[in-house]
Amino acid sequence: MPKLKTRSGAKKRFQVKKSGKVKFGKALGKHLFTHGKTPKAKRTHRGTGHLKDMDAKKVVMELFPYGAK
Question: Where are the domains of the chain?
Fold first, then answer.
């Protein structure tokens, strides 16, 4: 049987930490100044975050065929 491929999109978007948490880049932060956003929205969409446990489990099990490396 051939090897399973890692989902390239998931590989680019998620990083699995040693603790098992899954780190991701927040959405809606690329064009902060092109249209009106409140200062609170600009702060909250900045940087990275961690997925909830249920979502992290889905990412590891479904998107990475052999689990997280």
Answer: 17-63
Sheet hosting strand 22-25, strand order edge to edge: 14-16, 22-25, 48-50
Q: Are 24 and 42 in contact (CB under 8 A)?
A: no
Place of tokens 């889905």: 58
Averaged pLDDT, 11-31 = 88
Question: pLDDT grade, residue 64 (50/70/90)?
Answer: confident
Token representation of residue 41: 């929205």
- Length of the chain in residues, anyone? 69
Give per-residue burial for 14-48: e unless 16+ CB within 10 Å, then b.
bebeeeeebeeeeeeeeeeeeeebeeeeeeebeee
pTM comes to: 0.74
